[in-house]
Amino acid sequence: MKIFKKKKEENKMPWIKVYEDKNIKKEVDYSGSMYDKIVESRKNYPYNIAYTYFKTSSTYKKFIKDVNKCAKALKNIGVKERDVVTICMPNTPEAIITFYAINKIGAIANMVHPLSSENEIKKYVNESSSKVMLAINLIMPKLKNIIDETCLEKIIVAQVNDRMDTLTSIGYYLISGRKYKKIKDDDRIIYFKKFFHDSKKYKKEIDIVVDPKAPAVILHSGGTTGKPKGIVLSSESFNYIAASELEVCKDLSEGISVLSAMPIFHGFGLGSTIHAPLYVGGTCKLLPQLNPKKFGKTIKKYKPNIIACVPSLYEALISSKALKNEDLSFIICAICGGDNLTKNLKEKVDKFFKDHESTAEVRSSYGMTECTSGVTMMPKKSGKLEGIGVPCPHSFVKIVSPNTNIELSYGEIGEICVSGPSVMIEYLNEPEETSKILRKHDDGKLWLHTGDLGYMDKEGYVYFKQRLKRMIISNGYNIYPSQIEEVISSHPDVLSCTVIGVNHSKKGQVPKAFIVLKEKVESNYKLKQSIIKLCEENISAYALPKKYEFRDALPKTLVGKVAYRELEEEEEKNEEE
Predict the structure, then answer these.
(1) Which of 177, 202, 462, 479 could connect to 472 by a Cys-Cys bridge, CB 3.0–4.6 Å?
(2) CA–CA separation, 54 and 70 (whole Å)
(3) Would residue 134 be called left, alpha or beta, if left means φ above 0 and alpha means ψ between -120 and 50 degrees?
(4) What is the DSSP string of 433-476?
(5) 316: how many CB neighbours lie within 10 A of its CB?
(6) How would you classify residue 106: left for phi > 0, otherwise alpha for psi between -120 and 50, otherwise beta?
(7) 475: pLDDT strictly greater than 70
(8) Domain architecture of the chain: domains with CATH
(9) What does the pLDDT look like over 70-82, one tens digit per residue?
(10) How far is it, in rounded angstroms, from Cα 75 to Cα 199?
(11) Is the model's pTM score more than 0.85?
(12) pLDDT, position 177
């Protein structure tokens, strides 16, 4: 009976054949806490480099020693199991050391973007009942204004240059650091070095058994509605993401370096570019800040073996003058997540790598904060130009008719649903919102309704179309902006493009294209007509953009995605005027 049930379930998993062809295991081990996993790396590879930070580095032996010391420092200031500690930091050693120390003592890490507004920080702190915060000194002016309106009892202040090498630290201080004066006469504020030093005051041994399914991390995202919410995730979710992505990736292993430039307060950055390499004994090349215009110089300087970033950074990579004649053979793997990778951009990036002696081909992954990070990934040398990969081991994906639980056939476009260990526990203090996105289906599984449109082919490869809310309905027709964007982006003079729906008196909405041209290309009537002609040759008449607008740049979210909602709001304001 059990054998029959397993066989029946595998019939719903057409990607199993891909696993067999690509030597991908059906099952991976993701047991234990996040701290447990990095301790395993320390046992197996004590002298491997866990992270680099500018010109400094730390072995796993030193890293775990620092994490353990930080755990005692947290206990010394009164942090207990299930307490929430907010981390409002860029990617620095203090941030990751504290993150794993929080996990070691069974507390919960509340990850907040340092560029959040005062009101947003206050909201995230108070909603999570966080009494302790680790904050970068750059945001102290904001915290001074709101600290009395929060439940914070202690703020641990870290500085960007705390663990830089001496020369880099001096340079940073002279250029930027001296702008930020130390805060005096507030016993709620303690600087990281003193906080760390005071760990010796805690004399007990920490022997806490952490439940891997318990809340461990809170990330903040607009989710499927755009309203910021706290997303509660477990250790198990992050361990699963690391183990399953490693299995499909096949390139990340001990000693391999990853550019850890995607932010620690984002699921993709924390799960895929920090926890995954530390999980396996790899090296995180930590960057607290990344300038897209200097991305090429960053790659040239740090020489990471693996790049994992959003499409806009790949656009910057292939446009970089700094890499014009560079040998990039050190890059063995390139993963794209966080936003949709078009076929056109993939072809350009793959050619760029090949022309620069790298064997890497950019591979899409797909996920959202509500399922921690990536739950699908394109296998190595899949031969597919499009798609977001196959489900990772232990993850299930199905396509349903939007706003229903009705599963669609292969090739039919519907809402992407995900089930498996990566799925969130809940939205923090939002039971109604949680019930809308997490639904139990007739198969008995709990499914995350992503709000994304896509389809699955007969081999089990999943294809992303776009956000459900981005679909434009014009005169009764469903129009997919991503299709138009890909056509326009294929024009030789176009760098990038975003399409939104704008209001129309008769048709409801019509598409409008915002276009960024390549460097030194100027917009003119002839160029616009050539783009229009390209669209007319490749897009159905009902889906053609009715407006085209050239921009120097497109607005971006804090993690580098195109902020299409800003364009929509801008259009709405223009209509009102």
Answers:
(1) 479
(2) 22
(3) beta
(4) HHHHHEEE-TTS-EEEEEEEEEEE-TTS-EEEEEEGGG-EEETT
(5) 21
(6) left
(7) no
(8) 59-220 (3.40.50.980), 471-576 (3.30.300.30)
(9) 999 999 999 999 9
(10) 8
(11) no
(12) 53
